Hints:
Helix content is 80%, strand content 0%. By secondary structure, the chain is an all-alpha fold.
Amino acid sequence: MGCFWEIVLFILAVFRVGMEFVNFDLNSLPIARKLSQNGMDRQIKEFHKMGFYLGLGYVFFTSLQWVLKIV
Length: 71
């Protein structure tokens, strides 16, 4: 993967993890609100939880990879 896209994905992952730490209401996003009207509350919650874990893993392993490249 190119360095540019790696940095873009890292910034997006940090943004996603940061949204969780500032207690941003992810259910207020337009797609989540629409799916919430259809009774998919549990699936939305699981989707956001999985996104948080994937973002956290990406941040952790990418930063670890960058540190190991320096050493």
